[in-house]
Amino acid sequence: MYTSAPVPQVRTTVLVGARVYPIADADGALVEPIDDGAVVLREGRIARVGPRAEVLAAVEAEESQGQSRIVDVTGCALTPGLFESHGHVGVHEDGEGPAGNDTNESIRPDGSALRALDGINPADVGFADALRGGVTTALIKPGSANPIGGRTAALKTWGRIADEMLISQDLSVKSALGENPKRFFGEKGKAPSNRMGVAREIREAFTAAQDYRAAKERAEAEGKAFDTDLGKETLVAVLEGRLAWDQHCHRADDIATAVRLADEFGYRLIVNHGTEGHFIADFLAERGIDVIVGPLMTSRSKVELRERTLATPAVLEAAGVRFALTTDHPVVPINFLIHEASLAVKEGLSPAAALASLTVWPAQMFGLEDRIGTLEPGSDADVVVWSGDPLALDSRALRVFVDGREVYSHEAGAREAAVADPFGPTPICVP
Q: Where is the Amidohydrolase-related domain (predicted)?
């Protein structure tokens, strides 16, 4: 499937001749592609982007001859690395069965003290698959068995240790409404067993967090000791706006419940899945609520998916809702993320919005737009070189750079993909 390649050094690289998709400018406004463009990667950052002649002239003026590696990618397309904003790569390992599934800790409904980072295995083949599909960042989330699932973690998709790959685990908390939590607990004869019970669990947890915060403030004012509760600390961070609330919900009524709960407690809501979001797109737009849509390439495997349609992103775009697309890996393989956008374009989504939904828009949702999602100078040098139009079904990622290091390459003639081995040669002495 993949051959191992040595880990290359980070060096100044100039990619020239491609159709360059910067996606957005420094203010977040979408911009047009640059034909015969060039991008400079230097010290793990984007250093320059623009027309080929302009960039090469600047490079020549800045550096001594031969210092930069010039790579001719004429005829290709170049984009920022894609951002999978809702997935389980590393916590639900592909092909490993129960031994590799650490997605849900479903013993009790409130998992607010859990952290996805503690369950991530960087050796999961899903990370190599991500690179194959041009995905360089993934927001990895606990599953949807619990009404409150735990804290998420954004990681680069190449590396050997999760902490080294980590961008931040101070972005959001996963929560679930609808069929999944009521089924997981109801089938065990435990609460919650219906939608009212799921909402109650969330409401009671936030009420307890408010009381905890007030008691902690009183103790601090009086100089008294106070026992820390890890779960309540996380929920207080949500209440104070330091973490977003990633709400799994498919049906329109569950989306409405998510909004109702967010209004009650004042936290920032991001709808995850939003399968029936097209029914209430005007409501979502009016409330300014972001939606992570998908996965789109699935069967209607349960009742709350019966209205799943590839047209949902186009409806949200028309209504003015900011959205992202997701594979929900491993529900749909993470390397198919670009294809979710391609298929949505066939149903009316604009190509510009399709690419934005995989890059700058999810980055903005989680406050990461200064690092990922565009080719703005200063952002992380996460870049994908595509064989053609990124949204064309026959295009593929030929080269993938993470933090300026080329970690994936595809040799079309040999039909082989090589991934830099982050562990490198590892001598082991066996007695």
A: 79-404
Q: Phi and psi of 317, rounded to 5°?
A: -60, -45
Token pair for 152: 């998420």
How many domains does the chain fold into?
A: 2
Asked if 292 contacts 271 with a C-beta cutoff of 8 angstroms, the reply is yes
Domain membership of residue 246 as a residue range: 82-365
The answer to the question of residue 427 being in a domain is: no
Distances (CA, A) of 153 to 30, 316, 349, 425: 27, 26, 29, 28
168 shares a domain with 103: yes
Instruction: Extract the tokens encoding 355.
Output: 């690419």
356-366: pLDDT as tens digits:
999 999 999 99
What pLDDT, on a 0 to 100 scale, did the predictor assign at position 412?
77
pLDDT given for residue 422 in this prediction: 92
Q: How many CA atoms lie within 13 A of 148 on its CB side?
A: 27
